[in-house]
Amino acid sequence: MTMEGDPEYIIVLDDDPMIQKIIGSATGKSTQNFDSIKSLESKVDSLNPIALFVDIHLGLKESGLDILPSLKIKWPFAPIIVITNDRDENAVGDALAAGADDFIYKPINAKELVARLQARLGELAKREAREVIKIGDVTVDTAHRVIASLDGHHRYLSPTEMNLLTCLLDAHGTVVRRDAMKRKCWGQIYVSDNALNRKLHEVRRALKEISQIVTIRTIYGTGFVLEVKEKAAAKKGA
What we know:
alpha/beta
């Protein structure tokens, strides 16, 4: 099965083309197959799967486990399920340590595959709902400290910068006072207004690179508010 016409698809990294057919038939989803790490890496930036199935032994020398850490960083909420004939007692532990969410032995049992996939999709969807926040044209991944635009451009924030942004997000469009922001982000450590302003400047700059409408507005003498310009414009016209 191919990805044409189906916005939701599964990546299969396996040098046996029959595995792709089995997974596509069992799940009813389109699949895209790669038989080597290199072939997947060459297209990884243009892909956005809902799940991945990865074989451990690819050819004579490659191990699918080698690419798992980078795949998990790229798609943190797409379950990665390792499939293999390898009965080594260490295989499961090695796969989970590398970033796999689950493990299935070959020959593949279609009912088991679907049950495990649905369970992992459900778990990661709940985690994503807690860790990923959308505001305007920006997606904020608090777990990985990444802000991203609708077209895929992204910026990484420092821990303090993400804490500041999260503080503003939690206020849901209301003003966050300077003292409250300092207390939440630095605790009892003394932080000057200038230090706070410098950190907020970095967050503003990151947002400007990603978004056309999400901005941090300073309420002089009071604090700061995270705004979506479209909403602000609508209020003015009301």
